[in-house]
Amino acid sequence: MPALVLLGAQWGDEGKGKATDLLGGSVDYVVRYQGGNNAGHTVVVGDQKYALHLLPSGILSPTCVPVIGNGVVVDPSVLLSELSGLNERGVDTSKLLISGNAHIITPYNVTVDKVTERFLGKRKIGTTGRGIGPTYADKINRVGIRVQDLYDESILTQKVEASLGAKNQMLTKLYNRRAIATEQVVEELLGYAEKLAPYVADTVLVLNQALEENKVVLFEGGQGTLLDIDHGTYPFVTSSNPTAGGACTGSGVGPTKISRVIGILKAYTTRVGAGPFPTELFDEDGAALRRIGGERGVTTGRDRRCGWFDAVIARYATRVNGLTDFFLTKLDVLTGWEQIPVCVAYEIDGKRVEELPYSQTDFHHAKPIYETLPGWSEDITKAKSFADLPKNAQNYVKALEEMSGAPISAIGVGPGRDETIEINSFL
Ligand code: GDP
Ligand code: IMO
Ligand code: MG
User: Fold this and answer.
1) Segment 191-211, tens digit of pLDDT
2) Radius of gyration (Cα) for the chain, nearest Å?
3) Catalytic annotation, pick one of 13, 149, 228, 332
4) Residue 65's CB: how many other CB atoms inside 10 A?
5) Can 47 be counted among the known catalytic residues?
6) Euclidean distance between the first and the last CA atom of the chain, given in angstroms as a whole number
7) So what's the pLDDT on residue 376?
8) Alpha-carbon distances of 94 from 63, 200, 217, 285, rounded to whole Å
9) Hey, what domains does the chain have and what are their CATH numbers?
10) Which residues of 272-366 form beta strands (DSSP E)?
11) pTM attached to this predicted model
12) Whose CA is nearest to atom 16 of ligand 2?
């Protein structure tokens, strides 16, 4: 049985954690392949709610091996506190594997993230301030620190020194900050080495061997398609590839092994941080979506910007990820609206545009063209099959499916594991 990818089809927070957790009991490995603790994945199991940042949501399924792939950036202090928090709640985390090639978010990467955002002023990205961008920048600049470096003090010291040299110049001369001492950073990082040692592994080998043995591997994306460094709304993006290709580079599993790519799609749209968002609402409807949907960031606690469903974006996600399925989440949040507008195309400088414009300038001007679908008022949270949904909810789902270009194979009608309608099996 081959590999599946599960990723965000919009700007993140689509419900990836819940969807991963739902499949966690039926798969052998769940792998995070990019991003870091900028992610906030909420999983609700019974009356227990878990907020996961760095750990794959599969960690909550006892039979599943959670893996942090080489494409992830790891803040060791966050990882260790997330692990101990779960242990305190009785979750066994001993099966976790971490790639020795994953890059480490150092304290100076976090500092650089914060000062550069402040320096950008009103042009800031609105990052999570977790050091994500600077850590990926160090990786690409070939001055990054990897997990495996924690086990060679001499190499670690040389690498930290090389990386910090230029940053201290920048921090002191440009940003008027104090320099950071190499020894202090090395000491802190070495302090994590022993605690992380039991988890560090050659995850590329482990995952490929597992696939040879017909084990099921699920890749869990962080963020979302429109936050992708290549395919998102650059520069208002994160610094990695949440799109499907990222699952390969971020894990060392080849594309021929991937059989399904599932896009998690919210029944409306949200975004955190700065950047264009054509269907954003500034009125009572936007406030109601935020209130009813509980749209507040899991990582930073910021209110999420809310708007109607955007089919142009969904089609784009289908295209750049080669989506085979959608998992539509939070349909229950739309209960109660008499009419539900859905964006079917954009108007850009007086012209109707059906597909996402490649020009950033055009996208910033895009005005949504809406079609309005009739709503429903019945409670749908207990629905177990598509037939249980009111006719108008069925029609809303069918319309979204037609506009988005891939079958909707599951529908979320509440945050809990069992509040899901399965239409086509993912496995
Ligand atoms: P992620 O980052 O993609 O994992 O999503 P988040 O956890 O940041 O945000 C999704 C929120 O919606 C969480 O609070 C989930 O518990 C919740 N959620 C997921 N699916 C559904 C659903 O179908 N209905 C409702 N009402 N809530 C959902
Ligand atoms: P999950 O996995 C929503 C956003 C930030 C900011 C931009 C860059 O929970 O869906 P970064 O710290 O990554 O450099 O910030 O990306 N962002 C997210 N928005 N959900 C996330 O993760 C996000 N991770 C980053 O708000 O706009
Ligand atoms: Mg989230």
Assistant:
1) 999 999 999 999 999 999 999
2) 22
3) 13
4) 22
5) no
6) 9
7) 98
8) 11, 12, 18, 45
9) 3-91+203-422 (3.90.170.10), 103-198 (1.10.300.10)
10) 305-307, 309-310, 325-329, 339-348, 351-353
11) 0.97
12) 238
